[in-house]
Specification:
six-stranded mixed sheet; TIM Barrel; alpha/beta; five-stranded parallel sheet; 3 domains; Urease, subunit C, domain 1; Diaminopimelate Epimerase, Chain A, domain 1; 604 residues
């Protein structure tokens, strides 16, 4: 009897403790008042989310989540808008993306107003006039985002075209692909490029009929100027890039960004700004494996410090498909320009370099992400990974293919067998789908660029990316292109490669979180995960597919803190388009670039 009483008393005590409201956790914030898409298949739609100490405390219906409400709990009213997990950047270049925010906008509509050589020159001139004090002081004009495929002349600008803007001030404009650029005569002179300059390995200095540089620089000819230039920017210039880029990413709903071809100086700048609390989102950097191995080995980590970490290695095999520098396994369909018969692009590196880089990462268990656009580049990557896995085992490094614009179906099978994660670029169907259909690969192969459908047929996860600054980090354009595959002209390119909205959302959230070894913390709204959210103007699951690109990011939340609010954006900002017009930041950028050019010239 005594034993029974004791047990009953013990059970009663447990029951009282379990029912006590004094021991429950009180939420810092409860989100409710609009659709909440969790991207969690076990409960995909919920009414409310409770958050405490920057992590999700509870997810469910309003009654159950309200149990966590206390006197200090803030109630965040979604006001009918839709909340999702914050977007995870599958591939982008967040620091160099700052160029996009702080230079002349040479993008074609709808992201800019450049449609021909005349409007390009007018845009550069107007930007120079608006920033005349800065230009005069730092002696530099820079523009970003021109695209020869969208210019009426269907050609690249030349140094003579840019000389008409200014023959005295150095001008550099960057192609939207980021793999080409044009310099005026003054900039070529500063860079030490003249008629006697030879093409570097993996690059081309285009010359006119007289043997003089025409200003267009491809791949490593361009990188040979720009990368040392960026490396010489100094702290002020790199900080200006990093601040502007991270703010732009946040404005499009990204709570995790990537710096997809980084360098030691860039990562150190990110770390410095992160320690000072000036980077609003998490950033994963992948320094170039051909240039920064010692730095990668000493800094790679799965853990963030002040929102920054080095995730692994970046390798680049070939170039730009729309710029005809990607390595194909067959000739380009109808390339625009002076190309020899049977031209199929070229590799930027040798097979020996590819194998050595992949082996280095596998031997050390370090993740490697690889830019391979053409079929020929994928053949090189597949061969290298097969060899590395035979030698070192499969490892758990989650290797990533970046882009894979032109792939054969057997290559998808190989990537699936080798455990390679596909980070694909469906925005190409919008921006360059017509160009690919008519010029790069032709009407048949163009149907299968960015083959998300092939990936899903095999049950593969994939990520979708913007590759900013190649395009704006426009999350809704990424979503729209993945679902509709509609081109600028209105054509649907590869209807069989389309996927549904939920699949497209997973490719922006939980799957790239897995790509980065962060699926336990990010990518879905589940108890225990980080309180990283994005709030959209409407529900992507219910709007018409052709209206997905019109959705707006209204609020971005990182660790339960609002880091972007569209209602607080500068007056006159276009919906979804950030305005970065800080004259001081622009001054820092241009001054550093000018100084970098001078240092580069001195070093030559």
């Amino acid at each position: 009897m005594t034993s029974l009483l004791r047990n009953s008393s013990f059970l009663l005590a447990l029951t009282l403790v379990g029912c006590s409201t004094d021991t429950r956790e009180v939420a810092d914030t409860i989100y409710s008042g609009g659709p909440i898409l969790t991207i969690d298949d076990t409960q995909s739609n919920v009414e409310a989310v409770a958050v405490r100490n920057g992590r999700i405390l509870a997810v469910g219906d309003m009654d159950s989540v309200s149990a966590y409400r206390g006197d200090s709990t803030e109630v965040f009213d979604l006001a009918g808008r839709t909340m999702l997990p914050g977007f995870v950047d599958s591939h982008g270049h967040i620091v160099i993306g700052g160029v996009q925010a702080l230079s002349a906008n040479l993008l074609a509509p709808p992201d800019g107003e450049v449609t021909d050589i005349a409007s390009l020159k007018a845009t550069l001139s107007a930007w120079a006039d608006d920033n005349s004090d800065v230009v005069e002081q730092v002696n530099m004009i820079i523009g970003f985002g021109y695209d020869n495929s969208q210019l009426a002349e269907l050609r690249h600008p030349t140094r003579q075209d840019l000389d008409e803007v200014s023959a005295e001030i150095p001008i550099v404009i960057v192609h939207q692909s980021g793999h080409l650029g044009v310099a005026n005569s003054a900039a070529l002179q500063l860079a030490g490029i003249d008629a006697s300059s030879d093409d570097p390995t993996g690059g081309v200095i285009r010359k006119d009929e007289n043997g003089e540089p025409n200003g267009v620089l491809e791949e490593y000819a361009f990188f040979g100027v720009v990368i040392p230039l960026l490396g010489e920017l100094g702290a002020e210039g790199l900080e200006a890039f990093a601040r502007a880029g991270s703010q732009m990413w946040a404005s499009f709903g990204y709570t995790t960004g990537q710096d997809g071809r980084s360098a030691a100086a860039i990562v150190d700048t990110l770390k410095s700004l992160g320690a000072a609390g000036e980077i609003p989102i998490d950033v994963i950097a992948y320094p170039d494996v051909l240039e920064s191995r010692d730095y990668i080995g000493a800094n790679v980590s799965r853990d963030y410090a002040d929102r920054i970490r080095v995730g692994g290695c970046k390798l680049t095999i070939d170039g730009s498909p729309q710029g005809f520098t990607a390595l194909r396994d067959r000739p380009y369909y109808d390339p625009v320009g002076d190309y020899p018969p049977g031209y199929a692009g070229y590799a930027a590196v040798t097979m020996e370099q590819v194998q050595d880089a992949v082996n280095w990462c596998y031997e050390r268990g370090i993740q490697i992400i690889t830019h391979a656009n053409g079929e020929g580049a994928s053949d090189m990557l597949i061969e290298a990974i097969e060899s590395a896995q035979e030698r070192y085992g499969s490892q758990n490094i989650r290797p990533v293919l970046i882009h894979g614009q032109f792939m054969r179906e057997d290559q998808i099978d190989s990537y699936n067998r080798l455990g390679v994660f596909l980070s694909l670029f469906p925005m190409h169907t919008y921006y360059w789908g017509d160009w690919h259909r008519d010029h790069t690969v032709g009407p048949v192969d163009a149907q299968n660029i960015s083959p998300t459908g092939w990936a899903r047929e095999r049950g593969m996860m994939f990520g979708t990316h913007h590759d900013a600054p190649v395009a704006l980090p426009d999350s809704m354009r990424v979503l729209s292109a993945t679902v509709t595959r509609r081109t600028r002209s209105g054509d649907i390119l590869g209807p069989d490669q389309r996927v549904d909205v939920m699949t497209a959302l997973k490719a922006m959230t939980i799957w790239p979180a897995w790509q980065h070894f962060e699926e336990n913390d990010k990518g879905s709204i589940e108890s225990g995960k980080l309180a990283d959210f994005v709030i959209l103007s409407d529900n992507p699951m219910t709007v018409a597919p052709d209206n997905l690109a019109d959705l707006q990011v209204r609020v971005t939340i990182k660790d339960n803190e609002v880091i972007y609010d569209a209602d607080a954006a500068p007056q006159g900002a276009r919906a979804g388009m950030p305005i970065v017009s800080d004259p001081e930041a622009a001054h820092e950028l241009l001054a550093a670039m000018s100084e970098g050019f001078n240092r580069l010239t001195d070093s030559r």
